[in-house]
Predict the 3D structure of the following.
Amino acid sequence: MFISKFNQLIRSRILWGFFAIIISVAFVSVGSCGRSSSDGPTVAGKLNGKKVSVVAYEQVAEAIRGFGRNRNTEIPVREVARRTWEQVAAMQIAAKNGLTVRQEDVRNEIWGLPMFQGPNGFDRDRYRAVLRNEGLHEAQYEELVSRGILMEKIGALVQSAAWISPMELDDEIAAMTDTFTVQTATLSNRFADVEMRLSEEDYKKFYEEKQESFRLPDRMSVRYIAIPASNYLARVTVSEDELLDHYDSHLDKYPSSDTNTVNGVKPFEDVKDEIRAELLLDEARMCAETNATFTLYGKLARAAADNALAVLAAEEQVEVMTSALFAQSDPLPWAGNAKEFASMAFSLEPESFETRFAVVAGKNEIFVMEYHQKSETHIPAFEDVLEDVKTRAQGKARVDAFDSYVKEMRTDISTLMKAGKTFEEAAKEKALNVSTSLTYTASEMQMKPFENSYAIAFGARTLKKGELSEAVAASMAQSLLIYVEDRQQGDALAAAMVSSKIRDGLERRRGNTLFSDWLKWNLDQQRFEPSSKFTGGETEDADEPPERDE
């Protein structure tokens, strides 16, 4: 396993820059006060005159979007900025009032999460593996958990002020326990597959109104080679002791359905070949990574700076490929280890040999990549996204046309009913399909559901006898108009039984709304001075001077 340890030393580009760092430090005067090494801003804005660093801002913003498979890239940039500043302001208020999170709280929260559990409770190896898979470090994740707990504490304090009026509670109980008799008219979406008549001006107007939603994130393109780990299988071996160590450390990976086995685990001899194949591939991958790193930074350094990747590709007998532009959160199914591949790609810099390349281990291959091109976040020109504009504008036009049709039909039916026609007569006059009378109680609906039952119950819940609902979406293909023929007061015992659950539900809904409103209100109370780049704008404030490191 010596090669594994050696690989850990040389796989990082940091080591190769170590001597350069020592030399550069020698030229820095002890008393100097340099500017930040970053070309970008170091301050995202100010709250009550207190600077908020870009690092602090981006930590919160990243958490809002999420990580790994759960990352939400659809949230508009301005929405992320607004929510980030709301949370930063809330945390400042919490700190001012002495509301903190203990390390013990963070530890207990992490130790209790199911995804980190092994056969004997919290499994630190599994914890680290899960974080590594999501591209997170332990300290980074613990900071995320700490902020989450703090926001929960702030939310609980705000939500404790939520108040539910007796009238509101009575209305909710009645909606659940009253007996409704209704008829429904079905309106089919005849615009669903229609090509809407939109002009070039219509498309331009849609683009201008929705420009921010077309914004592209920072994207990177790399030139890379993929070296199969199997090419190095002949160079590696694993001992019997290593096989046994792996087996003993990962017993949960080899469960047995045979009740005669000890602790329900397959015997070592039964899984020995499987373990050997796994460890050999691990060793071959490390060997390939070590060889590629050594060749690139040792043998080829300086001597072949301009064509090092091509030289290495020729030695490994693989092809040099160029990726399309990709964002850091893109899945990259061809990369094998997309999270680390993208992370390393976005750390590449073309200025020097040490930072121009990166070596990343995939599942069955080793990737060696070289900086090729970077595209900063921007809103593409109308012509560049015309097809996307057309698709989305057509979709919106279809939705708008159906909404107009539904509102027109409801108005016509209401007019006919005021003229003396029944709901069924009026709906049929407009060529709509009308259901027979349906009688139900919302609290019993789970035991006796019927077609569109939940949409009907939701649409009728606030209506009195003789009232007609607004259109209620039953699916993408149809909406319903609901007419309440009769409504009878529910059973008093049933009302008493559901009362506490309904109150709890109302308090949760009210609390969530109240907390959201409070976050907005709280930010408005602060002296809030963000850089335009951190409000979802495209450029930073020109009048903000460069910040010095403090």
User: Anything to note?
Assistant: The CA atoms of residues 220 and 374 lie 4 Å apart. The two ends are 44 Å apart (CA to CA). The first strand starts at residue 43 and ends at 47. The chain is about 50% helix and 15% strand.
